[in-house]
Every structure is written in structure tokens, then in C-alpha cells.
Amino acid sequence: MMTIPEYYAGKNVLISGATGFMGKVLLEKLLRSCPEVRAVYVMVRSKAGQSPQARIADMINCKLFERLQDEQPGFAEKIVAVSSDLTKPELDLSKEDQSILAENVNVVFHCAATVRFSEPLKDAVQLNVLATQMMLALAHRMKHLEIFLHVSTAYANCNRELIEEVVYQPPVDYRKLIDTLDWMDDGLVTAMTPRLIGEHPNTYTFTKSLTEYLVQQEAGDLNVAIVRPSIVGASWKEPFPGWIDNFNGPSGIFIAAGKGILRTMRASNDAVADLVPVDVVINATLAAAWYSGSQTLNRPKNLLVYNCTTGGINPFRWGEVEYHINMSFKTNPLEQAFRRPNVNLRSNPFAYQYWTTVSHTLPALLYDGYLRLTGRNPRMMKTITRLHKAMMVLEYFTSHSWVWNTDNIAMLLANMSPEDKKMFNFDVRQLHWAEYMESYCMGTKKYVLNEELSGLPAARKHLNKLRNIRYTFNTVLVVLIWRVFIARSQMARNIWYFVVSLCFKFLSYFRASSTMR
Predict the structure, then answer these.
(1) CA dist., res. 55 & res. 43, Å (int)
(2) Which of 171, 265, 368, 437 has minimal Cβ neighbours within 10 Å of its Cβ?
(3) Gap between the Cα atoms of 120 and 186, Å rounded
(4) Strand partners, 135
(5) 7 vs 371: CA distance, rounded Å
(6) Nearest one of 94, 59, 174, 162 to 404, comparing CA atoms
(7) At what angle do helices 250-258 and 380-398 cross, to 10 degrees?
(8) 3-class secondary structure, 316
(9) Beta-strand (E) ranges in 360-487?
């Protein structure tokens, strides 16, 4: 078989969702590692008065594309912006653009989707299901199409404990659901949503399950593959470690923990945190399209599904995530932290509610009171409210573990040449979690919050100040409790002395035992 760069040489590629987190990483990697690709068509809608061409021009000027700019200064000439809107009939493509795509495209990467877990069902169906249906209809018109690759999610079937690399039939017929939603008013849809999605935790996983089945049913004679990433995080190695550009998923939670705003979170310490670096997903995606697309004479008989996960190969648990977040942000703190980083996971719902009140709500109310007294607008309760909503969305995934079958991923890796394995590395057995978490946390600091490393000494000094304030506050609190409650009551003093003497005896016994050893 030809190498991956050889396969993409001379090819015309179409990418939907190229302005999204994964889409832009895919675009950058494809252009940088497959320099002989002929053209990359990117479907983009106008937004905030910006044309598709202007949005692409802005996007390729960001930090992500700096390495590509240095290695291939003329790369932008290969990018062709195509005006499109996934929410409109025929994807809002002009007849001219439809004709150009039908005549030229060889490979399609369908990455576009809504990733909002709380999206109203109608909108989620429109963006995830109907848009994919229209993309497939467009693909059927492409005369030289070799592979249609659909990016799904490993949680499309999260109602199952064991998830194989197959397409499962959803409990609801997507055709009937589309027809039903067409006449239902929004209020009725909202009321019916819990029953419709059934065991799925949200509309996102539900509609992604429907979409996978739609792809299988409507692919016809198209060569199709599906890649299912789990929780996509910052880059591992490419184009540089720790690149991340958004607050979505775990990134916002990490930042809130680093700022000291998040102190408690509902999660199981032993549950597997199925984080997967974005460059791992993109490398696997490019390799999957190469494998299916290059075998024109020996095409896979079945639609190939790839579970791009880490939990079954190199497991990393939420308790370990907690530890590394605290350590990373204490070593390299964020600027102007609210409190010292010290997030703790709670699996017990009552303990979680208690610590949420004590460590989130009460401090936020006190801080907002201080802001009002100093003539400033209160903002901390709004931040805490948004944070709690985000954590509620993630709670299902931080409290469960799944068993993933990854045979196809292993098969794909085995079919790659040594050069391709190095250039398109998605072997997560090589992933060292401690190093990755440190670069991830630093990535949120540098690329999301735009904090310079030169500000680290001041941030560390601020963190030490917060530590001193905490110690002072605790000391004053103990003295007040003594003066108000214990010093005025003989019974309280007796209890106090009993507890202190008990602790002293325990320490003495422990010291004596250590000496005897």
C-alpha cells in the first residue's frame, strides 16, 4: 500500500466543520503532513458580518498554523472556502459550488456537528442528523469520491457498557423522528424529549447514535468509515504540545480548578477518564480515510468503525486527573487566582451537595457582597451558576466507565508503514499521562487565557499570598470559636481537653511504635 502522504497527493479534499476545534486541527495536519494535496475545500457559513473567506483568513492566522506557515508559506492557496449553512436545504450551497464539488472531490471529512450537550432536540437533529443526510446526498453526486469519513463520538452508544466497533440500531427510527419533529411545536418537543432520548443522557449522544445508523443505511455504494473519539482534549505533540483554544469539555473545568473557583466536583475517583488528545484523533482519522480509500480493488465489505479511545489501552482515572490538575496549577499557577487550586472529587451526592454549598456558593456570595460594598458589579455567583451547569452536563461521563473494543484501531496501526506510524502517531500506549496533563494545563494558560510565561513569578507570589490569607483566616476562626463557644462553657472545655489529650496519646503511641521498629 502507498504511504499516507502519497495517497493524499493530488487529491481534492472536502471538510465540513473546519472552523471547529477538531476541524481546524485536521486542516492544519493535512496540509502540513501531506504537502502534495491538491486542494482542500472547507464549508463555512458567514458569521457576524464576516464572509467565509474572511473567517478562514482569520483562522489560519492563529497560533495553530504558525508551524505550517514556517514550513509552507504558500499553504493558504490550497484552501478553498465554500459558503454553506448546515441548517438550510441543500446545505445552502450554490448550484455552481455543488457542481464544483461533484466534479472534483475525492475525500470527504464530515466533522461538522453541534457539541452542545443541552441543545434542544430539534436543533440537535437538524445539525447532527439532517445535515449528515444532506452531506451524504451531496457525496452520492461526487464522481470521483473514494471515501466518506464521518466523525462521530465514542459516547453515541453510551447506554451500553461494552461498545464494539459496529453501528448499533437506535431505539427510535430516525426517519419517523424527523417527520414527527417537523409538525411538533417546540413546547411539545421539549416535553417529549426525555422519553424520546430514553437511556441517553442528552440530545447530543442520542442524535449521534441516530446519525451513525443513518450513515450506514443511506451510504449505498459509497465507501464509508466512522471514527468515534471519546473526550477530546489538548494536543499531545502536534503541532506543539498542549494546544487548545476553547473552554469546551474538560478544558473549562481545568481552568476553573486552576483559578480556585472549582473546589468540588461530582465524579468517581476510580472511573476511567477517557481523555484522548486531539492530534491522536486527527492522525487516526487521516489514517482511516487512507486505509479505506486506497483499497479500491479490495474494499472492506462492511462499514469500518474506529473507537478512538484510551480507556482500554492506557487507562487514566478521574482521581489521577484531580491529582495532576492540583499539582500542575500549584507549580504553574494561573494569574489572579481566586483561591489556591485544590479540587476534590465526591461520589456521594450528599457530600457533594454539602461541599458545593460550603466551598462554592457561600464564598461566591461573600465575594459578591464584598464587590457590592466596594462599588463593583457582583459576578461570582453568575460564574458559579454557569460552572455548576457545565458540571451537571459532564457528571454522567465522570461517574461511569465503559469497555471499548479497539480491534480496528489496532488493525489500522498494523497496516501502516514505520514512517507513517511516526508521522501519524495515534498509538496511545506511548502516552505518558503526567507529562500530558502538565502540558494540557499549561496549554489552557497559554492558548485559552493568553497568559505569558513571564507572568509566572507574579502568579506564584499571588498564590503564596492566598495561602497566607487562608492560614490567617483559619487561625482567627479557631480563636473565635474558642472565645465564643469553648472558653465560656465548662462542658465544651472538658470535651476540648478530652479530644486534645486523645490526640496527644495517639501521637505518643505512634512515636513509641516507630522508635521500637
Answers:
(1) 11
(2) 171
(3) 9
(4) none
(5) 60
(6) 162
(7) 130
(8) coil
(9) 403-404
Q: How many CA atoms lie within 13 A of 227 on its CB side?
A: 32
d(CA 239, CA 280): 11
pLDDT in tens, 301-354: 678 999 999 998 999 999 999 999 999 999 999 998 888 898 899 888 888 888
Average pLDDT over residues 90-111: 95
Q: At what angle do helices 318-331 and 250-258 cross, to 10 degrees?
A: 50
- Report the C-alpha dihedral over residues 166, 170, 173, 174, rounded to 10 degrees: -70
What average pLDDT score do residues 63-72 get?
92
For residue 378, count other CB atoms closer than 10 A to its CB.
14
Q: Which residues pair with 404 in a beta bridge?
A: 163
Other CB atoms within a 10 A radius of the CB of residue 58 amount to: 11
Residue 506: all three cell numbers together: 495517639
Residue with cell 476540648: 496
DSSP-based three-state secondary structure for 26 = helix
Evaluate whether 144 touches 193 at the Cβ level (below 8 Å). no
Task: Tell whether the model's pLDDT for residue 508 goes beyond 80.
Answer: no
Determine the length of the chain: 517
Of 288, 257, 258, the residue nearest 146 (C-alpha): 288
Nearest alpha-carbon partner for 253 in 156, 318, 350, 310: 318
- Reduce the DSSP state of residue 103 to 3 states and report it: helix
SS3 content of the chain, % helix, strand, coil (to 5): 55, 10, 30
| Residue keyed to cell 459509497 | 222
- Residue 230 DSSP SS3: coil
- For residue 196, give the nearest of 131, 113, 124 by alpha carbon: 124
Question: CA 8 to CA 414: how far, in whole Å?
Answer: 20
Through-space distance between the first and last CA atoms of the chain, rounded to whole angstroms: 66
- Which residues on adjacent β-strands are paired with residue 39? 12
* Burial class (CB within 10 angstroms; exposed 0-12, middle 13-18, buried 19+) of 297: exposed
